[in-house]
Fold this sequence. Notes:
Elements: E1 22-28, E2 34-41, E3 54-59, H1 70-74, E4 80-85, H2 102-115, E5 122-126, H3 130-140, E6 145-151, H4 165-171, H5 173-182, H6 185-192, H7 200-207, H8 213-224, H9 235-244, E7 252-256, H10 265-274, E8 279-282, H11 290-293, H12 297-306, H13 311-317, H14 355-359, E9 366-370, E10 375-377, H15 378-394, E11 402-406, H16 411-422, E12 426-429, H17 435-445, E13 450-453, H18 455-461, E14 469-472, E15 484-487, H19 488-495, E16 509-514, E17 524-528, H20 529-542, E18 551-553, H21 556-560, H22 562-565, E19 569-571, H23 584-594, E20 598-600, H24 603-612, H25 618-625, E21 629-631, H26 639-645, E22 653-655, E23 658-660, E24 663-668, H27 671-677, E25 683-688, E26 693-699, E27 705-710, E28 717-722, E29 729-730, H28 734-738, E30 747-755, E31 761-766, E32 771-773, E33 776-778, H29 781-791, E34 797-802, E35 809-815, H30 824-834, E36 840-844, H31 859-870
Helix pairs in contact: 2-3, 3-9, 5-8, 15-16, 15-19, 23-25, 29-30
Amino acid sequence: MIRAQAASLPPLGLPGLDPVWSRLVRVSDAxxxxxxxxxxxxxxxxxxxxxxxxxxxxVHGNPTWSYxxxxxxxxxxxxxxxxxxxxxxxxxxxxxxxxRVLAERVADLGALTDALGITGPVVTVAHDWGGxxxxxxxxxxxxxxRGVVLTNTAVHQPDGSAGPLLIxxxxxxxxxxxxxxxxxxxxxxxxxxxxxxxxRAVRDAFAAPYRTAAQRLAIAEFVADIPFARxxxxxxxxxxxxxxxxxxxVPALLLWGPRDPVFLEEHLRDLQRRLPQADLHRxxxxxxxxxxDAPGYAAAVGDWVGQLRPVNSAIETGLPLPADRPSTxxPSTxxPSTxxPGTxxPGTxRPSALAALEARADDDSVAVVEVGGACxxxxxxxxxxxxxxxxxxAAGIKPGDRIAxxxxxxxxxxxxxxxxxxxxxxxxxxxxxxxxxxxxxxxRSAKIxxxxxxxxxxxxxxxxxxxxxxxxVRPVRIGRLVNVRHTMTALALAGAGQDCGPEAADxxxxxxxxxxxxxxxxxxxxxxxxxxxxxxxxxxxTYWLTAxxxxxxxxxxxxxxxxxxxxxxxVPDTDVTKPGTLTAAALxxxxxxxxxxxxxxxPAALRxxxxxxxxxxxxxxxxxxxxxxxxxxxxxxxxxxLRQLSAVLPAAKMHTPYGMTEALPVTDISLExxxxxxxxxxxxxxxxxxxxxxxxxxxxxxxxxxxxxxGLPGVxxxxxxxxxxxxxxxxxxxxTDRAAAAHPGWHRxxxxxxxxxxxRLWIQGRTVHVISTATGPVTPVxxxxxxxxxxxxxxxxxxxxxxxxxxQQVVVVLTGTGGPLAPLALADTxxxxxxxxxxxxxxxxxxxxxxxxxxxxxxxxxxxxxxxxLAGG
Length: 873
């Protein structure tokens, strides 16, 4: 086999690759031998006087080539040079006469940047084994280094890890020869690890430089050079680079695909430990070839380098630009909100989430009730929380540790939550309704340190691949099988009478709560203790909650807040992952046990309560009759539903707060206020609460939100919110956080709405639900309301847009039998009620809804179904 082959330019016509970027560069290597590299360089052909802001030095891994970075070239940040070489023996660079080891590849990269006249500032961008090579270059070129960007890679095998299984298999000599050299299997498998699968033409482009065994020789040698064993010739180089990463005092960005079968969560955690300053964004649907799975990575890299400090201060400090850029919101739209009498001024020092529990430490009355009879007093709750918190500290659980809770709503869950907070830990909670796969993905993304679970949770932890110390709620027979280290019972005994240390400070992390996943993979939402305290105070003040109140919540988080609010709480006997199964009898039983004064439930739950009310007993109806306040949230609540519920809860004031996982509550409105507002362009959710500011980013003609915020009435657009209780950030989602960077301190909700002349907010849908018609954007909620009013409160209605953007047609989808095309009379009724042209009226058995409240319609799924149907599917 002839090893040596000359370098060449790639063939023309490879998808996405501009031939203008390609050049051949001669370099003298460490042995004084001239070598020729194929390099992609967007600065090729520029005038010598053109000086870039900096250089993105992109380093590919094995078995790809510089083609991997074509999107970064196409979307290069303005003023930045982008350079991506093929390693010697790889891509279209020279095939040389002997194997190349890690130290030589690092040296090759340095010689190449010298030949190209790259003097800095440089941001390295790397994938796979290119990660360690790029970091080796960074270590040797600190004065030029401005930042580090890494996509799925590893620089070291974490303790106890034998290394990625697929790579270890390819490392074995026989398999290496068969998969890497004799056949193109290794190349083809690598480009098949994408989600969704990349087009055939792109896969072929990746394989184009590796058609023959001679061309694949470096691929096999690259794999063989991975130093798994201590005595491997490249091991000392790897160890040195991995060790010195921690001394790279520059900004870093990690872009990660969690579906990668090669580089796993432990590799990401190892990188985070070595680069604690790194920003992180997880593309939850991405796999190994992240630049293919997440095309938006190029814009993310451009945005990230754009927010770096100027070069001089960067070299001096090595720190990223703080996220406090001046807002584009003018002074006319951002002023202090009016604070109503009797409420707490923003900025006021508030009691902690544990203050109410401390205040009732000697109170023997009931704090938490489980339907079925079990209960715990305030005094018992306080004692258990303190003892378990002290036991956690003695067991080595540190303040700031993240602790996932896999316990169904119960006294045990309440105790665990407040014990974690008292120990200074951070609770991590994901919906059971996400399923094992969704929960696992969410909890792994939160970088948890420990797990508290009941038996079912402990058994689910292994298939979810959750890290962390296992803590059982109580002793279990399968403890050894599932690696239980502690039990809450044992921790309480160990901590009895011991000091559990100071409480968490306002600026400490309190919780990572996951969204419902109704609009994509569930997102982790990070709260600090100051934000939790502000939220509690706002809820208490808004709903006049006192120690005399008792709450039944069909939405577990509200029940869990009971002890922090100083009020007894209970969860009704229902499946919390299916709120629509809540019956009037179950709600009545919970209200009777607690003598409840407050009820919280989603619209779907309340619909079933209304439907099952005739089956409730006299005692259950009497208990519901003593409730003074009903709160419902999670989706728009029809006024007619609230009116009909007045027969079930006759003494209750009906309130519908508006908010989201990232900020709850934002506004509030009562049934009486809804009736005063009357019909409008959406669902009226009331005025912003004290201390809350709401602004609108107006929609353009194509239905896209703009960048300017306004508080003017009548402007339809994306809703932005600012308040003390708004989340701190999204967890491990730097790109998502950056989307709101134009207005620091504000949360972009993704909801579409409009403010009226009275300052009331009307919800019109989600940004992804806006229908882009030839006459401008159309929002769905107002049309749905008018159709629902015409058909009755029990009707399911979804309005979606079908067709190309700019000429989409309005389609109405109803729940019912028959179909899929609605009968002519029904279609005429819908068109008459809609108030605007409707192209089609369709019928389906059920509309897909969110898992948390069973109330938010997944209009994207409905749109896709309707589009397929109307296209003849």
